[in-house]
């Protein structure tokens, strides 16, 4: 069965430190993977998707099919990066059905 | 452009009752998905509608149902409420209905079953 695992519930770093939020998945086909973010008192929103291969707010994520991972990285964390981050995998040929991990809370302190 | 609107924001219901939640997607979006969010299970997909047709359904009992109207507004219904149905219900809309298209989420409806 398709599954997304985010092993860390909480990641605490200091401002300026590198950040890596881990995401592993299990999927039998060709996955489409996403990172969603929820800032305090805001809606869940898309941060980035692997097919775009883009960097958003300094974050990047590379799909590693061999290790079935899609870790989110940022070289220098900022306090405004503090939020809940969800890794998600698409399911189905059409539709926006997403399988989410349980999320990782990132806390960046000065 | 107005975002995804969910009503009501909060609901308190008694076990055994039924409840209807509403979702108005972003104008022009034809796909609406529903998710249940709980502390224990996280975000779980309920179902997805596109042009009034249910295309995907998650692993939830038949007490959970939904529909979509011709104006793309969607409702989900939960019958015979159980305590475990207490959750935040999120709705998301997308323009094309393909997963690679960004899904925009509403603020959710917080359902408490007592």
Describe this structure in words.
In chain A, about 0% of the residues lie in helices and about 45% in strands. Chain A contains no helices and eleven strands. Chain A is globular, with a radius of gyration of 13 Å. In chain B, about 0% of the residues lie in helices and about 55% in strands. Chain B has no helices and eleven strands. In chain B, a hairpin with a 5-residue loop joins strand 7 and strand 8. The model of chain B has no long low-confidence stretch (mean pLDDT about 95). Chains A and B meet through strand 6 and strand 10 of A and strand 4, strand 5, strand 9 and strand 10 of B.
What topology emerges from the helices and strands here?
The complex is a heterodimer of chains A (110) and B (114).
Chain A: E1 3-5, E2 10-14, E3 19-21, E4 24-26, E5 33-38, E6 45-49, E7 60-61, E8 72-74, E9 83-90, E10 98-100, E11 104-109
Parallel strand pairs in A: 2-11
Antiparallel strand pairs in A: 1-4, 3-8, 5-6, 5-9, 7-8, 9-10, 9-11
Chain B: E1 5-7, E2 10-13, E3 19-24, E4 31-38, E5 42-50, E6 53-57, E7 64-68, E8 74-78, E9 87-94, E10 104-105, E11 109-113
Parallel strand pairs in B: 2-11
Antiparallel strand pairs in B: 1-3, 3-8, 4-5, 4-9, 5-6, 7-8, 9-10, 9-11
By helix and strand content of chain A, what is the structural category?
A: mainly beta
Low-confidence segments of chain A: none
- Number of helical segments of chain A? 0
Which class best fits the helix and strand makeup of chain B? mainly beta
Strand content of chain A: 35-45%
Count the E strands of chain B.
11
Order of helices and strands of chain B: EEEEEEEEEEE
Low-pLDDT runs of 5+ residues of chain B are none
How many strands of chain A?
11
Distance between the termini of chain A: 41 Å
Distance between the termini of chain B: 37 Å
């Amino acid at each position: 069965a398709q599954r997304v695992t985010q092993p860390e519930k909480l990641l605490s770093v200091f401002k300026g430190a590198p950040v890596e939020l881990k995401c592993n998945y299990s999927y039998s086909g060709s996955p489409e993977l996403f990172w969603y973010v929820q800032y305090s008192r805001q809606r869940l929103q898309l941060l980035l998707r692997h097919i775009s291969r883009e960097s958003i707010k300094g974050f990047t994520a590379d799909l590693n099919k061999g290790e079935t991972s899609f870790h989110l990285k940022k070289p220098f964390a900022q306090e405004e990066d503090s939020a809940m981050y969800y890794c998600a995998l698409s399911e189905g040929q059409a539709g926006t059905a997403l399988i989410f991990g349980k999320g990782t809370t990132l806390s960046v302190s000065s | 452009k107005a975002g995804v609107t969910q009503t009501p924001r909060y609901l308190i219901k008694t076990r055994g009752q039924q409840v209807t939640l509403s979702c108005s997607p972003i104008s022009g979006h034809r796909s609406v998905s529903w998710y249940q969010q709980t502390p224990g299970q996280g975000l779980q997909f309920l179902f997805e509608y596109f042009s009034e047709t249910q295309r995907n359904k998650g692993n939830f009992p038949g007490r959970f149902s939904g529909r979509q109207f011709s104006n793309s507004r969607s409702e989900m219904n939960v019958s015979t409420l159980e305590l475990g149905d207490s959750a935040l219900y999120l709705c998301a809309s997308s323009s094309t209905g393909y997963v690679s298209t960004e899904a925009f989420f509403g603020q959710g409806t917080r359902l408490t079953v007592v």
